[in-house]
## 1
Amino acid sequence: MRRVFLVVASGELGWSVMGTGTIAAEHMVTAIRAIGQVPLWVVSRRRQDARHFAGDLGIPQATTDLRSVWKDPSVRFAYVSASRRRRQHYICAAAAAGRHILCDGPIAEDSRTAAGLVHVCREAEVRLVVNQPFRASTIHQTMKRLIGEGEVGTVQSTLIIRGGPYQPAPTRRNLCQDGDRRIHLDASTDDIDLARFLTGMEPIEAVALTRSREEPPDHLAYAIRMSDGSALQVHESFRTADIESLVLVAGDRGVLAANGTLNGRGAATLQRRLNGRNELIPVRDRDLPLVTIEGFASAENGGPSWLASGEDSVAALRTAEAVAMSARKGRPMGIQLQAFPGHGLTGRAAENSR
């Protein structure tokens, strides 16, 4: 059967959506169109899933065959929204085809695999950008700017709190893609990445507490010593009653506190406390998928500094692995800093020798 490609208008850039598992993909398709670019293909292991997703969202092509996608000269970018275990397959395929990649985070199930994917993309000279919605938040970007400008003085502590009953990610199929066994992984990597983004510091050592060392951690409290000596304290739970999220950065001159930025619902606020007084900072948050797609599309010209890279995902995964290991073993775990050539530092979990 002869395949007909959709010819996009001059100046428009085409995308392939790799994976159909989450509602996030639907939001990103809308964001792609909002900036004048075109979702052209949907790829899935299951032909029926690809066809249903493409039909629902008005995407012209659906396939299980990646070779068909790469033959289409209009496809410039790949958005990977598959399960964690499938992201490696799609990232490697897109890199081999010379397509720039936006992938949901974390980019892999473990830090070793993630580091290998960073190497593959670097060798192929393609961009690997990680979809980290917390970085796209205008409130968090404002916090980072104020911290960098010295509004709170020298950072002493960062506190991240969120929790609530476990709610499986919405999917188009009645399937659990990654299982409940590692439900903490997305939460931990997101929170660790946010702390690194806000402070610019790297994790050095982690100690964690959980209800039972025999169970996969779904109720965690942990502390991380950062490279500047400050402390990161995190509470993540899928067992508690619903908690309004809090991101607090405390310095020796003042405090910044963001409420409701991590739960994806309702209006969020940013408050500054200086000289014993609280001040509400007016910040109008934007649509996070749209901000992410705009940032990715502009990355060809340097791109905004807030975008998460593959190296950032490796650092967050290695730190999350140290947290999980500390919870299992009941003792602190060191995080060995390791540099990627030409890039920033990342952490590698290792047992503390003390």
## 2
Amino acid sequence: MKFLASLTLTAALATTALAQSISIQAPVDGTTVQAGSSIIVEVIQHASPTELVEVALAIGLGVPNSAPAIGGNVLYNGPFNPQFQNTGIPTGQGPSTANLQNFTVTIPASTPPGLMSLNVAHFDLISERVVPHTETVNVTLNVV
């Protein structure tokens, strides 16, 4: 009985490990942004070898290296519905096509100058067993 439970857990973890993740295409790490300005956050959903059910995405701004925390300022919280698009990236320099979605968010005017972490938390369900999967990715922004 314990062996079966262990095997099930191992299979679930392996399925989660095989699930392809998201990444932040824009803004790039190190981008300088103005407090109070709007920016576009482009999130790519990489190809998955298993079936995915998208649940939600949250975008937050916090102190650097705060992941997996989203940060003190939640800039977006809602559905994630990436669509197949041409990324405009030349072949060999990145994916020329991808499932992606753009989000326009506003950097709070009260954000202090300096380095901040733009964090994207993603929640989906993977495989025919519908295993919950979460991840957080981030880039560092220089707020002025």
